[in-house]
Design brief:
The complex is a heterodimer of chains A (114) and B (118). Chain A is mostly beta strands. Chain A contains no helices and 11 strands. In chain A, 0% of the residues lie in helices and 53% in strands. The radius of gyration of chain A is 13 Å and the shape is globular. Chain B is an all-beta fold and 118 residues long. In chain B, β4 and β5 form a beta hairpin. The chains are: A mainly beta (114), B mainly beta (118). Chains A and B meet through β4, β5, β9 and β10 of A and β4, β5 and β10 of B.
Chain lengths: 114, 118
């Protein structure tokens, strides 16, 4: 089975721009979670989608949004980029997002905001 | 905010030695997982231990969980240079059946940077 894939792997943007990141989960997985990783704050949960519905959301401003498609692929969008948005963005998939499940992570998208 | 704290923050050992990392967390949990991350890449799942388990083994890995102390440890035996990485513990919210507010959410510790010298 192919693992979780994320595109693009690297991205450079300037302040004020917006960006869209994509995540394709493991085949058959319907839950996709997104995380932001920075040196200062570590790994922080952004949101989780299941069957095209956002079921859970972390403590991030409204500039961070996401969606999920009927094939379980997910995108996240960050509008009006700020320097502090520079981070590694990771997505993870699992069968249903339940507590007993392992989450499988993609390689991440490294975003640099100049 | 981070659920857990990991200790030590950095660990440097020689190949063949054992490495022990500790994790503490704050809320009740259903399970605790350990992940490895190489050089800022994606996280690789190592092992999951449920709240009703006290110890679990997988190859050279041994994980213990003490829910009364809200702590876990990861032991890597006979370490290799390839084990050099950051190691994170992650917990679920625990409040799964009270409105399902923890779907898909893992809360991570700050991680331990392990360096294994050949």
């Amino acid at each position: 089975k192919a693992g979780v894939t994320q595109t693009p792997r690297y991205l450079i943007k300037t302040r004020g721009q917006q960006v869209t990141l994509s995540c394709s989960p493991i085949s058959g997985h319907r839950s996709v979670s997104w995380y932001q990783q920075t040196p200062g704050q570590g790994l922080q949960f952004l949101f989780e989608y299941f069957s095209e519905t956002q079921r859970n959301k972390g403590n991030f401003p409204g500039r961070f949004s996401g969606r999920q498609f009927s094939n379980s692929r997910s995108e996240m969008n960050v509008s009006t980029l700020e320097l502090g948005d520079s981070a590694l963005y990771l997505c993870a998939s699992s069968s249903s997002g339940g507590a007993e499940e392992t989450q499988y992570f993609g390689p991440g998208t490294r975003l640099l905001v100049l | 905010s981070q659920q857990g704290e990991e200790d030590p923050q950095a660990l440097s050992i020689q190949e063949g030695e054992n490495a022990t990392m500790n994790c503490s967390y704050k809320t009740s949990i259903n399970n605790l997982q350990w992940y490895r991350q190489n050089s800022g890449r994606g996280l690789v799942h190592l092992i999951l231990i449920r709240s009703n388990e006290r110890e679990k083994h997988s190859g050279r890995l041994r994980v213990t969980l003490d829910t009364s102390k809200k702590s876990s440890s990861l032991l890597i035996t006979a370490s290799r240079a390839a084990d050099t990485a950051s190691y994170f513990c992650a917990t679920d919210g625990g409040s799964w059946y009270a409105g399902g507010t923890s779907y898909g959410k893992l809360t991570f510790g700050q991680g331990t940077i392990l360096t294994v010298h050949p």
